[in-house]
Amino acid sequence: MRARLDAIRKKSQDERTVQRKLTYLVLLVLVGATFGFVSKYVDGSSLGLIGSDISFWVVVTTIIAAWSRSPRAAALHACLFLSAMLIVYYLYSMILFGFFPTSYFIGWGSIALLSPIAGYIIWFSRGEGWLAACIAAAPISVLIVNGSSFFYVLSLEVSSLWTTQGFSLLSAVILFLFLPNHSKQRLRIIPPLILFYFVIEYSDLMYYFPS
């Protein structure tokens, strides 16, 4: 199994000291907490809508996981970031507004708890071959589905939707360009991306995410 995984992508040989690893983890928690605070502080604005949208979680977690040193590191990094962001976001609501939406917290919390599995898998998205391409296609397809109605929203009265959906599509383009290490791998992403798009779109999978 290890040999098969190494054939997709080998972990970085750059050895880091324990102090350096701990420093990175602390910074990751602080960044996550800052994102959670800012997202709640600007809640209701276009920026706030982006911060509380599933696309933001997907693209940031994908970037953190994919550029980690190893799949285990990716699992830990994704969980720490999302947990810190989630906790601060809802603590802000509870302390300042006396409001704690339990159902939303459980929904997003469940996603955060599952993030180590997703982070471990997503790490291989920057690898080689069709399996890596399929893994890379998964978050990109979610972003495209979430932002696909951007082209149908024409009313200025729903400009906030333009913001979140536009962010989803822009994030999809960024991941498509930078997740693969070369153009051949980028071409491999296209077939599973199309397949995943139609599966997600017509199975209404996005409706199961908290919003």
Keywords:
211 residues; mainly alpha
Describe the structure.
There is one protein chain. This protein has helices at 2-8, 18-41, 46-51, 54-66, 71-97, 102-122, 130-147, 159-178, 183-203. The protein has one domain. The protein has 211 residues and is mainly alpha-helical. The protein has nine helices and no strands. The chain crosses the membrane at residues 21-42, 48-67, 74-92, 104-123, 130-154, 160-178, 190-209.
- As a whole number of angstroms, the C-alpha radius of gyration is 18 Å
Question: What structural class do you assign from the helix and strand content?
Answer: mainly alpha
Helix content: over 70%
Calculate the terminal CA-CA distance, rounded to whole Å: 38 Å
How large is the count of helical segments?
9
Estimate the mean pLDDT confidence. Answer: 87
Fraction of residues in β-strands = under 5%
- Count of extended strands: 0
SSE series: HHHHHHHHH
Please give the largest β-sheet.
Answer: none
Q: Indicate how many domains the architecture comprises.
A: 1
Low-confidence stretches: none
Shape: globular
Transmembrane segments: 21-42, 48-67, 74-92, 104-123, 130-154, 160-178, 190-209
InterPro entries: DUF6518
Keywords: Membrane, Transmembrane, Transmembrane helix
